[in-house]
Amino acid sequence: MSEQQPDEMVDDRALLLEATGPDVAHPGDALLLLAALAEQSDDFLAAALQGEPVPEDERAENHRRRAYVWVRVAEHRPEFEPVAEAEIRAWQKVRADEDKEEDKEAERREEKEEEKEENEDDKAAAPAGG
User: What secondary structure letter does DSSP report for 53?
Assistant: First the structure.
C-alpha cells in the first residue's frame, strides 16, 4: 500500500488543483476559509464529545476542503507543501475509514440476507420432513 501512496498523493493533489472552488490566492482569503473549516471541525468534536454521531461524509468533505486550501496555498508558497501533504493524507484517511464503514455495512446487509434465506429454507424444509 505504501508503494501506491505517492501515486495517490499525486492523484489527489491534481484532483484538488483541478477542482473549482473559492479563490485562495490571497493569504487573507485562505485564512478566512481555514478559520471557517476549523470552526466546523470544532463543531464535529463537540458533537462527538456529546455522543452525537458525526457523518463521515461531512468529515471527509471538511478534510477535502482543508486540503484544497493548503494545496492552493502551497502552489504560491512552497514552504507550506508539508502542510498540504499532511492535509491530503488526513483526507485520504477519512475516505479510507468511510470506505471501511461502507464495507462493514454491506457485509452486515449480506449476513442479514443470508440469514433470511436460511430461515426461509428451514421453513420450507420443515413441512416436508414432518
Answer: -
